[in-house]
Predict the structure.
Amino acid sequence: MPPADPLQEIESLREQLDSWNYRYYVLDEPSVPDVEYDRCMQRLLQLEARYPQSQRADSPSQRVGGQPLQQFRQVAHEVPMLSLDNAFSAEDMVHFNRRLLDRLSDGSDSLEFACEPKLDGIAVSLLYRDGLLQRGATRGDGATGEDITHNVRTIRSIPLRLRGGDCPTVLEVRGEIYMPRAGFEQLNARARERGEKTFVNPRNAAAGSLRQLDARITASRPLEMCCYGVGLVEGGVLPDRQASVLARLRDWGLKINPESAVVRGIDACNAYFDALALRRDSLPYDIDGIVFKVNELALQERLGFVSRAPRWAIARKFPAQEEITRLLDVEFQVGRTGAITPVARLEPVFVGGVTVSNATLHNSDEIERLGIQIGDSVIVRRAGDVIPQVVSVVLEKRPDSARAIQFPTRCPVCQSAIEREEGEAVWRCMGGLVCGAQQKAAIKHFASRRAMDIEGLGDKLVEQLVDEGLVDNVAGLYVLSRPQLLNLERMGDKSADNLLAALDASKQTTLPRFIFALGIREVGEATARNLARHFGNWAALASATEAQLLQVDDVGPVVADHLRQFFDSEASMAVVASLQQAGVSWPDIARQPEQDTPLAGQVWVVTGKLEAFSRDEAKARLQELGAKVAGSVSAKTTCLVAGPGAGSKLARANELGVEVIDEQSLLSLLATHGVDI
Ligand code: IVH
């Protein structure tokens, strides 16, 4: 029962919302569905409007303030915000360690280090007085920054009031505000759709989002803050180690990086670096290095500072994710749906851990936006698993010989007309199935591992089959004969037999794979899976009305329209019929609409090595079934999936009596819910 007294109800709503925020942003353990959160927030806003005397600046409803500012105010940092020395190799780290031990010269031969990922964002100071957020400021030049209080207040991982009653009277917390990769990609995708300017990288996006006079703009940007230390502290005592200080900040409601760890000795620091370097691409945010700090604060004090950096810390940097190279040429590729994509041919450059010689230029708008010419020096970025991007042109370096990029006026493969739909950025070849490029791309997609998984039918072979006129659509694959195959160059008896066997084996498939394999525009794996689960069988799907299609998760008007066009196309349906005639089949899926998210409300954790798929893929599948996937095991965890090599998470699960299953059981569970990997 809610309290009868409205002022009391307001207070309890605030507490509830603060606690949900803390669980979500700091502990990474969402505890309520969004609708429940929104419902409580609406109720709070309603009550606060009705009882203005209850207004308080630290209410969770008060994140976005009033009018935009006229200009930023300057803020002097009482304790300067310093920078860090850099290390670029394991050897540099050994020298760093030597300097520390020499300077301390107290006989110890190894030190304890706090290891913290170096987030690539904007350094910010938060000032709390009596537990209330008073001011947020940028680092600026370290001595003076800008007041961005109105903007930091909108970031939900930043508490407006610290938790617990035991924080110092004055507590200045420092950390990094950053934009997680997923949010960055979404933001840029939206900007691209609207023809607006995109951000070069998540760091620039974070900086741009904080440099806003209107907090409503900042509030609409997916920013987070991770804290890594303190500045001014008055009227309170902090623990005596860096890692314990961070743990205390977390208790007070601030987010700290879950990858942080304490190790002893410099070799362990280098091992930590190597281990995180391997996972760098799969982290949800960009990091540009690891910061190593002497853990004991008393030792930090003894070590002191040189000029603008502490002696007791160092940042070991990863190889750069942005490099400069030259644009040699632009080629135009025609994709499965006829989309014409300009691809930059680059002078090979080592960036983000691989040698890059091609990068997509997306479409003609992007070429215009970049103002790029052949011969230009360009900045190429490769971060995470994201395909390399040309992010900007270095105009100062443009040679006299630079020449404009000519966008084709007809399909470069089949010479058909090209068209651009109203409001769309891409040009498409109108040749459809006549276009060799589209035929090849459709067949390659159909054969690919996550679609029909036809082993041995690689890209080169598909090209040969189409070029020789043996196949022009996917159904043609299943009527290929042995003599036809043997006529192909470099095709021996054994390869031909293997390919025929693989084609035969691929006929037994699943509905989600089949839908995905058809290559319907905008229907990726996840949508295909949702469609299969929703309709259960092909006939129901193919005869669904637009309104019925729209009821499926992930399916909006555009996707529904593409689906209907596909089902209404006689040519497409003839191909499907031929496939079925050739023996392509799949089991229907039991329809359980009310169980569309059978794991809703459950919290899962995945650890150890998996065989059939990566941990990230496993997480994605669990999330599709409605589970929340957390990074650590707690009393809230419903189930832990543990592969070989599982360590502390497994131990913790056993300790808490949390259910533990292996990969096989996970696969069977997914299968029973129609989720295919
Ligand atoms: S400690 C006195 N720890 O790196 C120590 N800095 O060049 C000063 N940064 O702009 C900073 N992650 O914003 C520290 N875990 C971390 C960090 C970190 C990122 C940034 C920081 C500063 C730059 C230092």
